[in-house]
Amino acid sequence: MTTLILLVVSVLLAGIVTYYATNITMTRTRQEEVQLIYLHCWVDSDGEASAAFKIKNVGSKDILLDEIAVRGVESDWNKIYFNDTTVSDTGLSWINMTDTAELGKFEVNATQDVPLESSGEMAVYLKDPPNIELSDIGTTVSICVYTMNGQWIEEVNVEYAGQ
Predict the structure, then answer these.
(1) Same domain as 138, residue 80
(2) Percent helix, strand, coil in the chain (nearest 5)?
(3) Do 47 and 89 reside in the same domain of the chain?
(4) DSSP string, 29-70
(5) How many helices (H) and strands (E) does the chain have?
């Protein structure tokens, strides 16, 4: 009888360890991983600020962009413009964010979380990011992208957008 109890307990423990190892392996293999590249933050002679970056989802699962903050302050969704067509590898350039023809090139002006599929990329432009002024040229500011399970922070120098 004792041998039978020890055998059942051993099999039960082996099953629990196998279940735990499988669960850890399956949940850890699909993680979020985001790269922010070609970051820029500009201020023009009128004091109008804009920021831009290319975001790449290099993780193995689709993500949702929950929030974008510049210098720790969340940007309004109605001032964030996305272009999910293929972004060139030469970087991003300043655009006049008051020019409706330029903004017409963007496919999405989001009002809520923005999905980005695995291995996808998109250009992101922010119109009037908070707390960026003409006097900030040459200083470093942070740009942070929040997803469902993480935050991705990069720093960039504020540049003058010569017109």
Answers:
(1) yes
(2) 25, 40, 40
(3) yes
(4) SS---EEEEEEEEEE-TTS-EEEEEEEEE-SSS-EEEEEEEE
(5) 2, 10
At residue 29, the pLDDT reads 56
Q: Read off the DSSP letter of residue 78.
A: G
Residues 119, 74, single domain; the answer is yes
Taking residues 61-90, report their average pLDDT.
84
Do 78 and 5 reside in the same domain of the chain? Answer: no
Does 69 lie in the same domain as 13? no
- Interatomic CA distance for residues 125 and 127, integer angstroms: 7
Give the count of domains, the chain. Answer: 2
Q: SS3 for 157?
A: strand
**C-alpha to C-alpha distance for 140 and 158, rounded to whole angstroms:** 6
pLDDT, the chain, mean: 85
Question: pTM of the prediction?
Answer: 0.76
Let me know whether 19 and 98 are in one domain. no
